[in-house]
Amino acid sequence: MKVLITGGAGFIGQRTAQLLLSKGHQVSVLDNLAPPVHSGPPPLPAGIELVEGDVRKREDWVRALKGNEVVLHLADHQDYLPSFGKLFQVNAVGTALLFELLVEGNTAVRKVVLGSSMAVYGEGKYRCPKDGDVYPEPRRAEALERGTWDPPCPVCQGPATPMVTDESVVRPASAYGLSKLAQEQLVRLLGERHDINWLILRYGAVQGRAQPFQNAYYGALRIFALRLALGKPPVLLEDGNQLRDFIDVEDVSRANLSAIESLASGTYNVASGRAHTVADLARTLLRVAGREPAVETPGRYRVGDPRHVVPDVTKLKAAGWEAQAGLEAMAREYWQWLQEQPNLDAYFEGAEYLMERTGTVRLAR
């Protein structure tokens, strides 16, 4: 098949492109090569056509879509900074432009696979001993300021326990999550209405070798490893007990391949099926790096973060896919790769300062 990967010069896109090539598919890439993700032309494998362009521009879509049968739509603006307009322009408007062109009928595209995010769930599902299964509201600013990290039951306001979350209920807690949900709804609605095969893949916290350290604004493993490489201990947000599902980029690439080749239309969680605390990740990295097990928890928090995200991967496993890499392998691979990279100190301090200055990261009282 002829596959276009938007955002294909990025971390997930490059790995997926390599896998597609190895399976005999033809691959082209649409990417704007913008910083901080990119610092120059990407080292794309031979045989991949690069269309430098922006998903917010109709003419760039027209150039990129020529001859392609499947679109793996990974182009995405992810930001904790208050760039709300750009979030929706890239994620939602860019997707709307894609479907405008598909509906016009001048392309060979017959399937769209969207790379989405666990951010659409917000807090996801919890269980209250009194009220059963509940879906907490986004955490209130005054609670976070007091250092009250766990969301209460939205019915009785008592304690609740995080549970695995399937694909059925979405309640975004951030502008990014809202923009991804808008993107998903466009794909689902327009795909069904205009008879275009569609799939939505909601990725967990994707890690792995070559995740660009230039973007020091988000990504726990990337930030912890960068601090460690500069002789600083990992700093945990909140108390470090937030639950996340960390998944290796190679496993995500295999899920993308399955979606392109064989999965039925629908929405799937793409995660390891093993939840770990953020502190677990930091301790694992310290162990593989041979460093003292020291972390800092000054009580900082990031506005819009969910407390826990525990995805249910039953649906994708039933379709024949299963994650293979574990937490230690991901941490070791990234740490070894980072040791080979130059100029690490050029990115970190500026990111920390900007996130604090804009109120993206705050300190509990």
Would you kindly provide a written description of the structure presented here, covering whatever features stand out?
With 365 residues, the chain is an alpha/beta fold. It has two domains: 2-125 and 164-363, Rossmann fold (3-Layer(aba) Sandwich), CATH 3.40.50; 126-163, no CATH class. Helices cover 35% and strands 17% of the residues. The chain contains eleven helices and 16 strands. It has helices at 11-22, 58-65, 84-104, 141-145, 175-193, 220-229, 249-261, 278-289, 314-318, 327-339, 348-357; strands spanning 2-6, 26-31, 49-52, 70-73, 111-117, 126-128, 132-134, 161-162, 197-203, 205-207, 243-244, 246-248, 266-270, 276-277, 300-302, 361-363. The strands form five sheets. It has a seven-stranded parallel β-sheet, sandwiched between helices. Strand 6 (126-128) and strand 7 (132-134) form a beta hairpin. The model has no long low-confidence stretch (mean pLDDT 92).
Provide keyphrases for this structure.
single chain; 365 residues; alpha/beta; Rossmann fold; seven-stranded parallel β-sheet; three-stranded antiparallel β-sheet; 11 helices
Brief summary of the model shown:
This protein has helices spanning 11-22, 58-65, 84-104, 141-145, 175-193, 220-229, 249-261, 278-289, 314-318, 327-339, 348-357; strands at residues 2-6, 26-31, 49-52, 70-73, 111-117, 126-128, 132-134, 161-162, 197-203, 205-207, 243-244, 246-248, 266-270, 276-277, 300-302, 361-363.
Element layout with pairings:
Blueprint: E1 2-6, H1 11-22, E2 26-31, E3 49-52, H2 58-65, E4 70-73, H3 84-104, E5 111-117, E6 126-128, E7 132-134, H4 141-145, E8 161-162, H5 175-193, E9 197-203, E10 205-207, H6 220-229, E11 243-244, E12 246-248, H7 249-261, E13 266-270, E14 276-277, H8 278-289, E15 300-302, H9 314-318, H10 327-339, H11 348-357, E16 361-363
Parallel strand pairs: 1-2, 1-4, 2-3, 4-5, 5-9, 9-13, 10-12
Antiparallel strand pairs: 6-7, 6-8, 11-14, 15-16
